[in-house]
Amino acid sequence: MSAEVNGRKQPQQERARRRRQQILDTSIEILQQDGLEKLNTASISEKLGISVGSLYRYFPNKQAILYTLAEQWLGANRASLEEIARWPLEAMEPKEFIERFLQKMADVYRAQRGLTLLLQTIMEVPELRELDEEHDRFVVQLLARMLKRLHVGSSRTERIRLSELLLNQGHFGLTLLVTLGPRLGSRTLEDLQAMQIALLQKHRQDNRT
């Protein structure tokens, strides 16, 4: 990671940790209201009512703030996926797994404020895109191991291919879901579940023949 996106160490005192999170929350608010071009240390400091010098105690620049926001978002994803990997997958049918899996991930996507703009920012900033690509590689490998425990896929190569499909289809569907109202969002989740259940059932049957 370059010096431009290298943030300060996580503060130890509770008050300092709260201030650091306030800076991140305010950055999301500015992203939502004004877009990436208006996000800078001056606008964040003004909105928070602190000096730029005080902000620099926590983050050296805008890039470090964006990097930390991306890390938090991807970290929440990773924590949920690692929890799912601890489920008793060997005893689960594809329908139960996909319904629970996508519901849990939908909760993660819905909980992230300003998700659409944050994802757009990740794609526009090379350091963040690199972080996202590293995360995707981790997810594909983890999903492939889960598919093996679910008895899906006839080979590791096939499970990797299916995992990439699940990742990309799921990410698109869940991102769409959070932009819709409750009724359409619920229908979108149901449709996404139906597609992924059918995919796993097809390849589980293939694997058992």
The chain-level mean pLDDT equals 90
Which class of the largest domain in CATH terms?
Mainly Alpha
For CATH, the homologous superfamily of the largest domain is named as: Tetracycline Repressor, domain 2
Query: What is the correct CATH architecture of the largest domain?
Result: Orthogonal Bundle
Question: How many strand elements?
Answer: 0
Q: Assign the CATH topology of the largest domain.
A: Tetracycline Repressor, domain 2
Tertiary shape: elongated
Main beta-sheet annotation: none
- Label the structural class: mainly alpha
* C-alpha-based Rg, rounded: 20 Å
Distance between the termini: 47 Å
Would you kindly provide a written description of the structure presented here, covering whatever features stand out?
- With 209 residues, the chain is an all-alpha fold.
- Helix content is 77%, strand content 0%.
- The protein folds into two domains: 50 residues, Homeodomain-like (Arc Repressor Mutant, subunit A, Orthogonal Bundle); 142 residues, Tetracycline Repressor, domain 2, CATH 1.10.357.
- It has nine helices and no strands.
- α1 packs across α4, α5 packs across α8 and α5 runs antiparallel to α9.
- The longest helix has 27 residues.
- The N and C termini lie far apart (47 Å).
